[in-house]
Design a protein that fits this description.
Length: about 375
Amino acid sequence: MNVCTHRERVILALNHKEPDRVPIDLMGHASMLVDKTYLRLRDYLGLSPIAPVRSGTTANYYDERILEYLDIDFRRLFLKKNQCKTKMHADGSYTDEWGIQYRKTGLYYSIVEHPMKGITTMDEVENYNWPKAQDMFIVDGLNKMAKDMYEKTDYALVARNPVTTGFLDKACFLMGMSEFFMTMAINPALAHCIIDNLLRIHKDIYRLFLDEVGPYVQMVETGDDLGTQENLLISPEMYREFIKPADRELFTLIHKKAPNAKLFKHSDGAIFEIIHDLIEIGVDVLNPVQTSASGMGALRLKKVYGNEISFHGSLEKMDTSLNNAVKEVKEQIDFLAPNGGYVVSTCNHLIDVTPESIIKVFNTAKEYGKYLKK
């Protein structure tokens, strides 16, 4: 096969065909570099400082110069947040547009106030100060940027997840995890009411975003953490009752607004039991493929679902020894790449990885991932 463009390579792979080499990705959902790792790599490459693309997270920089250096096949389009909707506090904490208060503790930001904690009636839910998509985000210039990137570059374009969290995540953030789980069990009507409001807002956000970029993107990101290392956070039955209907409605909208794009779904953990549900409701690409989680071995995933869904991620050892990291990327390519359907990327944000390891792993993926070598 002749050498593909970046976009051709991605389209072939996500359609379960073998391009010239396995596509590689970085700086998307769950594959950012935390700030100290990014800054270390930036300085190692001798790049000048740039402004962060976001704030209030542990990974705030998106740098296309690094993506170009590593020959990454994807580029992200961001729905820009209206920062004036975030309220900063004197103690260094902040309250976001959903009313959730966060404070940085060590590397991460932790929730210190769940604004819907203690709510017990649907009237309280309906009267909550729900945010509006048009107040949270700014689309000025986004359509032209997307069109220009589509016409003037050969990269696969991705609509970056504008809300990060999904329906289960956000409901737990608003109410507190234990309280929302109990609500699903003893007051299902109230849980449905919360999710219905989240669905309405998520649809408005994606509609706002994809009305600008939908015709130009090859992938649209969504996310919701549904698993732990050993099992699902909620039973498959609870997922199917509370979360799956909302996912289905949102994903249907996304496919309509971005008809040529694959739908990317992020969920950590052991979610094997509901992968067929995700496929049924329109998920095309599963991330981060946490193969160390129970039941999520790469060979099993490829055997059972490799013809129906693409896998994105799976690299978990980049913060260990360089030898382990290089060995892992070769193993994952061997397991997941045959017949297409695999994108090499990290399993989570890179927390404390050396520049040398990042460069070596992605160079190895480019060279070892060539289909022509076989």
